[in-house]
């Protein structure tokens, strides 16, 4: 497998880098505390950054970069590689872009939805007019989605939905739920659920905030009380929701902030060069040097996983096992990077963003807290290891 970029791809990357530096607010890094791999500090989920995020999304849409991986039939270029390059550059610069709509909903719609749904939602996703949140987890259904209780009962041309979702990232700043609901309570668990789009403004939808460990409102709990949704909003076939969610989870595990780790590493290296401890630059401290080298090696391994998966998608292959491996490496790396950063910065690394003495605007201290969310969301590390054991190594299920 050749992971070298072509001249055209390198030129395109340069164009994206220049665009991103030009279009982001000049003080953007000082406003946000985003940490790679976590779910609690993503700026597109915060109310105060919505204006910047929507404006940036419109500019991306104007360049045609929000739909690069889509088939030409839907306005794209069918180029997974170009889309990955854009995502890599944007994540390195912590740009307020991406999210559930473009990374999960759009590719899933293209593969399994009706033409009516594609026609309605793809244009709105492309220019940022339709934001989505994932309505999967419930108080008693997280890793085991088969235990979900939210029901959808047929009523003429509609479904009546009742139930509760939780840990709903961005539900308060988006327009639609990408929801898994039980449509056949008498069927076997994995043949009883359906994927459906629920408008947030539908009567009976109640969204309540959950302030996370980072003191940020990114999560929510959402209640559905006799919410009426047209049947045309069903995604794929009825009672095939688990299959479609597994498909969507593969996209979620692949569309990650691949450049964000490299950005933090670059900042830590620069910090080690510029700061002195015990009369010597940190860059001459052997413990610091070893920690940075170890981190650089792990990030290089992660990036190779990422680009390998991108190459597979570009060739029309489905990186099912690779997606689980990538997700596992990605989120566990978030924890390792946070611990390494705290060790290098010392007590100052744990200072909050409100402290004038906090390096990197307090990002490391908050990232230390946020990193624990990564190995839980989109399938826990234990789930990923189980998938790799059974499907990757051929080991028996316990």
TrEMBL record:
Record GO terms (molecular function): flavin adenine dinucleotide binding; oxidoreductase activity, acting on the CH-CH group of donors
Keywords: FAD, Flavoprotein, Oxidoreductase
Zinc-finger is among the record's keywords: no
Cofactor(s) recorded in Swiss-Prot or TrEMBL: FAD
InterPro entries named among the record's database cross-references: Acyl-CoA_Oxase/DH_mid-dom, Acyl-CoA_Oxase/DH_mid-dom_sf, AcylCo_DH-like_C, AcylCo_DH/oxidase_C, AcylCoA_DH/ox_N, AcylCoA_DH/ox_N_sf, AcylCoA_DH/oxidase_NM_dom_sf, Mycobact_Acyl-CoA_DH
Domain Acyl-CoA dehydrogenase/oxidase N-terminal: 51-128
Superkingdom in the source lineage: Bacteria
GO terms under cellular component: plasma membrane
Every Acyl-CoA oxidase/dehydrogenase middle domain range: 134-227
Acyl-CoA dehydrogenase/oxidase C-terminal domain ranges (all copies): 239-391
This protein's record includes keyword Oxidoreductase: yes
Family matches, as Pfam families: Acyl-CoA_dh_1, Acyl-CoA_dh_M, Acyl-CoA_dh_N
Similarity comment: family membership: Belongs to the acyl-CoA dehydrogenase family.
PANTHER family tied to this protein: ACYL-COA DEHYDROGENASE, ACYL-COA DEHYDROGENASE FADE29
Protein name in the entry: Acyl-CoA dehydrogenase family protein
